[in-house]
Amino acid sequence: MSQPPGTGPRIDVRGAVDLSNLGRPAAPAPGGEGQPASGAVVDVTEATFADVVQQSLEVPVVLSLWAARDAASSQVTALLVRVVGELGGRVLLGRVDVERSPQVAQAISAQAGSTVVAVVRGQAVPLPPLDQATIEQVRAVLDQVLEMAVANGVTGTVAGVSPGAPAEEPEEPPLPPLHQEAYEAIDRGDLDAAVDAYRRALTENPRDDMARAGLAQVELLRRTDGVDAAAARSAAAAAPTDVEAQLVVADLDLLAGAVEDAFARLVDTVRATAGADRETARVRLVELFAVVGDTDPRVMAARRALASALY
């Protein structure tokens, strides 16, 4: 993250105007207990997007995409609110509700390829995935953002925010027992046990979206464990109609962060196959959607491409 932001994409604020959701009540923003944001945390809309990006000339900006029905994105944004609150105005956090401001979300994701992005001098720098991050890991990421900002001459603070002592951190609520069991299994490298715990959580509550996402992520890790990436890619290139070979490479692409490549490979596989092979490719693509998150703009675009391939 030490690269100068001039090498990254510039956030384009043109055309980010969509008034279709203005009449819909907003869901409570993560970390705000339903109260309007202020100080170092702001809620970004089409109307304020340009101004927030402009502030990145003076203070590093972090933009976090979230949706009320995506628990993982809400949790990440709430953690960012807490950590930014400790920094005395040295970072401005912009929360973007993807359901109320879809064009802002699309502009960020399309140009930066990430759901959490740093902006310095108008340049977007994707941040690493924070879905499973602890608060200490989030602090470390924002420390890197501050180092990058200083290296590029951005050392201001958010107006009106005092650098006083950080507030005492509220105690994090405990995880549901089966989620905790899954996390502990992952920590000790027992992916089979983690899968079992998440499956039992879904049996108890089929609408447990966090368990569904966790299961998809652990299944991905389990499928790719020990795979020879070079051999897998060579096999897929040699046999473009071999569905299993394409599935393996799509998994590897997603694990490496090449989300669009993984989705495109499986959409192409759906188009090129029929019957049981087509269904196998479709099911795996839907599983990968769960890994990335249903509200991610890349997932939304791939869903449209899948529908076109099927019908």
Automatic annotation (TrEMBL):
<feature type="compositionally biased region" description="Low complexity">
    <location>
        <begin position="23"/>
        <end position="39"/>
    </location>
</feature>
<dbReference type="Pfam" id="PF14561">
    <property type="entry name" value="TPR_20"/>
</dbReference>
<protein>
    <submittedName>
        <fullName>Thioredoxin</fullName>
    </submittedName>
</protein>
<feature type="region of interest" description="Disordered">
    <location>
        <begin position="1"/>
        <end position="39"/>
    </location>
</feature>
<dbReference type="InterPro" id="IPR011990">
    <property type="entry name" value="TPR-like_helical_dom_sf"/>
</dbReference>
<dbReference type="InterPro" id="IPR036249">
    <property type="entry name" value="Thioredoxin-like_sf"/>
</dbReference>
